[in-house]
């Protein structure tokens, strides 16, 4: 598992080799420790190699050894299943309960990873996302820009309208507006618009700022921005003209 994980970090993708290893894995499944399981599944996820049988076999092993996993490893497991779009209902229920119990031990990146992972798998458990939101709000100042955007996107994607979280997140984005990357700005604005959370200060500022930095925005980010402002019904002529020219 350590060797595979190293290959994945180097982006070395040998599908045939990975599948041969997967075929040999069931015979020694019981020997895998929590760290081994995490590295093994993360390697397949990072290299976008899906093997449903192996992931389903490991789901039972994860449930059996659940308390051996650290909070960070739980986040990595959610990421692995979500990236490969493997929705194992029983495992996700087990992971939700365990993550809720250790949520305070999760670092900002892993909180974002968990929220985004469950969103990608379309698991809209309002109680679980309320638990995540409380911890995210408590530690909002610790979040880098990208995880902030991923959190906003996760709640918007599922339609989980946690007003307090989005307001806190929006205020934090405005406070750190100078350091955010364009993609993060676009994702946050789009999340507010999709969830119908009003933040006039945020939208007013970026309506002026985005035209000044229009070349830094990708086409996809500009589409998200245009969609966000259109959803809110705001008439920002200069902004839309700049987006149209781009």
Which descriptors would you attach to this protein?
mainly alpha; 70% helix
Describe the structure.
With 246 residues, the protein is mainly α. The chain is built from 14 helices and no strands. 39% of the residues are buried.
The total count of helices amounts to: 14
Beta fraction: under 5%
Average pLDDT: 92
Poorly predicted runs are none
Summarize the helix and strand pattern as letters: HHHHHHHHHHHHHH
Protein structure class: mainly alpha
Distance between the termini: 46 Å
**Biggest sheet character:** none
Query: In terms of quaternary structure, what is this?
Result: single chain
Number of strands: 0
* Whole-angstrom Rg: 20 Å
Query: Outline, from the CA principal axes?
Result: elongated
Q: What helical percentage do the residues reach?
A: 55-70%
Q: Can you give me a brief rundown of this structure?
A:
By secondary structure, this protein is an all-alpha fold. It has 14 helices and no strands.
Detail the topology: elements first, then pairings.
Elements: H1 2-9, H2 15-24, H3 34-46, H4 52-64, H5 71-83, H6 89-101, H7 108-120, H8 126-138, H9 145-158, H10 163-175, H11 182-194, H12 200-212, H13 219-232, H14 237-245
Helix pairs in contact: 1-3, 3-5, 4-6, 5-6, 5-7, 7-9, 8-10, 9-11, 10-11, 11-13, 12-14
